[in-house]
Structures are given as C-alpha cells and as structure tokens.
Amino acid sequence: MKELHRIYDPEKNFDVTKLDQRIDLSKSESKKILKENIEVLDELQQKLYGEAKKSLLVVFQAMDAAGKDSTIRAVFSGMNPQGFLVSSFKVPGRLALAHDYLWRVNKRLPMRGKIGVFNRSHYEEVLVCKVHPQYLLYQDL
C-alpha cells in the first residue's frame, strides 16, 4: 500500500512538487486508514503544541458540496479542539471589504503550537470577484 504520511526533517529542503499526490482508495479503505491514523494525528498535534515553535495551516479548497466539512470533521475528530481553529471564508462583509483582501485571512492564521484549518482559501476571493464584480466596488484598491 502507498505510504500516506511521512515526517520530514525540517532542516532539509522539502519540495511538494516531487511527491506523487495521487491516492486511489475506496471510501472504505480511506475510512480504515483514517481510523488507524487518528492517534498519530493526535500525537503530532500534542508535539506541535508542546514545542510551540511552528504552526500548521491546512487548507481545503473544493467546489460546493464536495465534502470539505465532513472531511474536516473526520480528519480532526481525534484531536484536541483547543489546539485548532476552523475558519470558513464566505462572501466578505463590510468590515472585511474596508481592508485589503488578505486582512480576514491573516486574522485567522494559527499561532505557534496551533493548527489552523481553512474551509476554502484566500483564492476564493479572486473567484468571488469574478462572479460578483460589484464586490470590487467596495474594496479600497
């Protein structure tokens, strides 16, 4: 079976483009592997928190109804909820529009020792403005 997780030495260079990112698993295989790794994720979260040197940002970007919420719920189910924050970026409100487009994203970046989970990325902002150009009128560009 393909190796699904690795721990990398932070002192060495890491290039995500060199990884084979194709995973061909059935839903039942995926659930089994996740169940087997829930404890590993919890241990890694505790280590991240204990060392408090780095943070982790996990970004889920997919179409509506693609399963982002249920994936987040499943993957982070075994972790201490005090150690991570899930943020969802919907249509920007007046306060967000009064700032640059990364303002609301920057506010949600995780502090050292914590995990941030973004349900959609800041790239969504670009897509929203393509579909709804009137939002650009409110931004101080």
Plain-language structure description:
There is one protein chain. The protein is of the alpha/beta class and 141 residues long. It has a single domain (16-138), classed as P-loop containing nucleotide triphosphate hydrolases (Rossmann fold). The chain has helices at residues 27-51, 68-75, 94-97, 103-106, 123-131, 135-138; strands at 56-60, 84-88, 115-119. The chain has a three-stranded parallel beta sheet with strand order 1-3-2, with helices on one face. It is globular and about 50 Å long. The mean pLDDT is 85.
Q: Secondary structure elements and their pairing?
A:
Blueprint lengths: L26 H25 L4 E5 L7 H8 L8 E5 L5 H4 L5 H4 L8 E5 L3 H9 L3 H4 L3
Parallel strand pairs: 1-3, 2-3
Q: What does the radius of gyration come to?
A: 18 Å
Widest beta sheet: strand line-up: 1-3-2
CATH class: Alpha Beta
- What proportion strand? 5-15%
Can you give the helix content as a percent range?
Answer: 25-40%
- Taken in chain order, the helices and strands follow as HEHEHHEHH
Measure the end-to-end span: 50 Å
CATH superfamily: P-loop containing nucleotide triphosphate hydrolases
Low-confidence stretches: none
Structural class: alpha/beta
Mean pLDDT metric: 85
CATH architecture: 3-Layer(aba) Sandwich
How would you summarize what this structure contains?
The protein has 141 residues and is an alpha/beta fold.
Essential attributes:
Rossmann fold, three-stranded parallel β-sheet, single chain, 141 residues, 38% helix
